[in-house]
Amino acid sequence: MSTVQIKRIYEPKNEADGFRILVDRLWPRGLKREEANVDEWLKGVAPSTDLRKWFNHDPEKWEEFRQDYTFELRHCMSSVHDLVDRIKKHKTVTLLYAGNDEKYNHVVVLEKFINNLIQPNQTF
């Protein structure tokens, strides 16, 4: 059984991170690739550019964003299955994101979506 956790990419890497996957469509500002300590970058599971720009981390748009992003995830299942395959190969996987808001960001939705695929009978 794999453990999936989330973390801002700007936070220092530590051993508990396990396999680190960046799940943003854009590379994080001000961060050099060699300093990022990213094992893999999977852009395909990030929100579309239009949805990301529309949402703009506005808490008032959260519910609609969450629903729209979940819809997008359901329609890009090959990318989602790529992520699930990587998760299943590692004991611990950390999904990395660049946004400032820990509560209102796409990785919260992605983590729940992935966990429901990996453990469909669990409630989160």
Describe the structure.
Strand 2, helix 1 and strand 3 form a beta-alpha-beta unit. The chain has one domain (3-118). The protein is built from 5 helices and 4 strands; from the N terminus they run E-E-H-E-H-H-H-E-H. Strands 1-4-2-3 form a 4-stranded parallel β-sheet, with helices on one face. 40% of the residues lie in helices and 15% in strands. The model has no long low-confidence stretch (mean pLDDT 93). Helix 3 crosses helix 5 (106-118). The protein has helices spanning 33-36, 49-55, 62-74, 77-88, 106-118; strands spanning 3-8, 19-22, 40-41, 92-97. With 124 residues, the protein is α/β, with parallel strands linked by helices.
How many DSSP H or I helices?
Answer: 5
The strand order across the widest sheet is 1-4-2-3
Rounded mean pLDDT is 93
- Proportion of residues in extended strands: 5-15%
* Low-pLDDT regions: none
Secondary structure tally: strands: 4
Structural class: alpha/beta
Count of the separate structural domains:
1
* Biggest pleated sheet: 4 strands, parallel
Distance between the termini: 16 Å
> What's the Cα radius of gyration?
14 Å
The helical percent reads: 25-40%
Q: Sum up the overall morphology in one term.
A: globular
Would you list the SSEs in sequence order as H and E?
A: EEHEHHHEH
